[in-house]
Amino acid sequence: MDINWANVFEISSLLKCFIVGGLICVIGQILIDKTKLTPARILVIFVTTGAILGGLGIYQYLVDFAGAGATVPLTGFGNNLAKGAIEAVKESGLVGAFTGGVKAAAGRNCGCRFLWLHRSTYFKA
Amino acid sequence: MEKLGKQTIKFDNPPTILECSSIVGPKEAQGPLAKYFDQTLEDEFWGEKSWEKAESKIIKEATNMVISKSGISSQDIDCVFAGDLLNQCISSSFGLREINLPFFGVFGACSTFVESLSLGAICTEGFAKHVLCATSSHFCSAEKQFRFPLELGNQRPPSSQWTVTGSGAAILSKEGNGPYITHITPGKIVDMGIKDANNMGAAMAPAFADTLITHFTDTGRSPNYYDAIISGDLGHIGKEIAIDIAKSKGYNIKSNYNDCGVLIFDKNSQDTHSGGSGCACCATVFSGYLFKQLREKKLKKILLIATGALMNSTSSQQGESIPGIAHAISIEL
Amino acid sequence: MDPLESKKTYQDYVDKKSPNSKILKNCFNAFWVGGLICTIGQVILNICKERGFDTQTSGTIVSILLIGISAFLTGLNLFNKIGKFAGAGSLIPITGFANSIVSPAMEYKSEGYVMGVGGKMFTVAGPVLVFGISASILVGIIYLIFNTQSVTLV
What we know:
Chain A is mainly α.
């Protein structure tokens, strides 16, 4: 299967992604510099905000507009969790609310843990 | 031994600081004082498996070095005062578990070096002929315990300080030809409500000023009496605050005052923000730099005031403010 | 003026005395590094789409690749240097999340694999998962009750 590189490097989509992703990070940077919040707290704020905006259906607009610029920041992770929960509620009702988010998170987390186990064998801490 | 004023102790037979030794880590070895230290390490592990083990090794080797440099036998040392920053002071107690001498573990956060020297000096007025004092700290083990993992990609605020990796050790002797510890002024705990663990200098500066002024009132001396007034680890921000506070109380220390945390690193090239900190900051700068200046008679009278922030990671997470402490010793030829 | 008059005056005095972070420079660095990381994600995403994966799978592949790169750089002790330069630029993208899991795991390896690595791995990321998943459960329940996503948008 051939890859159409013009589609991959389509300038307008990349530019939108760059600007939106960058701006989300700038919000984080302002929080770091202007408040005494620790990194962990800032990540919590972002993931929760993402989940709430996702739940309200607002975040999806940003994803449609900016693609990875909206999904790669942690707000996108929060949005994924919310989306997972809503999908699961549609399928299996109340139980879905509890399992959906965790299911959506599984890919990223397991990837992370698995990769770490690999790294740990190569690097001395 | 006699008490002057509120807090100061004056020695009738002032003990001599017989010998000092210092070992520092790789970052300190790139700093402006590098040539004064006895030994510099090439990496933070020094062949050990963990930072905690490396720190124990550093204090162990520093004490061995000071004993061999002094020429006295370790049997002639009557007791040891040592401390560090890790929980339950494991670096010093693990490092010195084979030294086979009576051991007092002390904790005064970063003020521990002067606290040990003070207690050691008091012992020489009594039973002891030789007393060994040592402290250590390690950047990596301290970061791990007090802040975040080293590999975590976060930014340090400009007011933060860099824990010195290293250890300083000194032997006090009842008899000798100086430099002498003539006075000690143990400090009170002073808390001005600073909560920011990334601004230790500001938290400790009021304690420094309190001890400094008490020392002057008790002894009747003025800042000009000393060639140098040296604080432990207030850093650049703490140093400025200390000068301001002293000025507001009517003491001008600007001309002869400096800080070990300012001296040990070059702020511009080493990216250490507000300067050095930790038990080893005051210990290595004194043992490496100041002690040699005293020996060469470039400095004749110094007032060494080590400062400490008496907090831990639990207390700052629970929103407690940071109490500061400062102990002073006056060292004269 | 006596800065030590009261705790309040001292705090005000210290705030005035302590230098501020260089917020403009930090924001600029955060902007372009953060933007760049997202753009790398977008390129990967586009390649996956060209390869014929659906959106969801492509998204997961992007995450896993970025996490892998970040974990690798953390292992090489490079990520903290990027993080120092870029601040939120590398913290907020999924790379920062991966770094926050890998870094304590590396740091606490000396305390063993179970209580050291296993126990401390989520010291920074744990709260993120707890709050993220809790928020998603709430979202799910609210959705169940109102049966619509756009509660406030009506």
